[in-house]
From TrEMBL:
Name of the protein: Cytochrome c oxidase subunit 6C
PROSITE patterns: PROKAR_LIPOPROTEIN (PS51257)
Keyword Glycoprotein appears in the UniProt entry: no
InterPro entries: Cytochrome_c_oxidase_VIc (IPR051389), Cytochrome_c_oxidase_VIc/VIIs (IPR034884), Cytochrome_c_oxidase_VIc_sf (IPR037169)
Compartments, as annotated in UniProt: Mitochondrion inner membrane
Listed pathway(s): Energy metabolism; oxidative phosphorylation
Subunit-structure text: Component of the cytochrome c oxidase (complex IV, CIV), a multisubunit enzyme composed of 14 subunits. The complex is composed of a catalytic core of 3 subunits MT-CO1, MT-CO2 and MT-CO3, encoded in the mitochondrial DNA, and 11 supernumerary subunits COX4I, COX5A, COX5B, COX6A, COX6B, COX6C, COX7A, COX7B, COX7C, COX8 and NDUFA4, which are encoded in the nuclear genome.
Keywords: Membrane, Mitochondrion, Mitochondrion inner membrane, Transmembrane, Transmembrane helix
Entry-linked SUPFAM superfamilies: Mitochondrial cytochrome c oxidase subunit VIc
Homology family: Belongs to the cytochrome c oxidase subunit 6c family.
Cited function: Component of the cytochrome c oxidase, the last enzyme in the mitochondrial electron transport chain which drives oxidative phosphorylation. The respiratory chain contains 3 multisubunit complexes succinate dehydrogenase (complex II, CII), ubiquinol-cytochrome c oxidoreductase (cytochrome b-c1 complex, complex III, CIII) and cytochrome c oxidase (complex IV, CIV), that cooperate to transfer electrons derived from NADH and succinate to molecular oxygen, creating an electrochemical gradient over the inner membrane that drives transmembrane transport and the ATP synthase.
Membrane topology: Single-pass membrane protein
């Protein structure tokens, strides 16, 4: 029974470390990277002036009335 807590603590510490590394890797490659690619794809063809003109024509802005 001597050093039982220390032995189990070491095991659980390493286990928690590797589980957290796995979760971080899953998030990075399962969520962050696809999101980054989706944003890059969206802004590759995005025209801000076209979007502004569409919002202005819809009357979204008070300072820029529709033409």
């Amino acid at each position: 029974m001597r050093r039982l807590l220390a032995r189990r603590m070491k095991f659980h510490l390493f286990g928690a470390f590797f589980v957290s590394l796995g979760c971080a890797a899953l998030y990075k490659f399962g969520v962050a990277e696809p999101r980054k690619r989706a944003y890059a794809e969206f802004y590759k063809n995005y025209d801000a002036m076209k979007d502004f003109e569409a919002m202005r024509a819809a009357g979204v802005f008070e300072s820029a009335p529709p033409k």
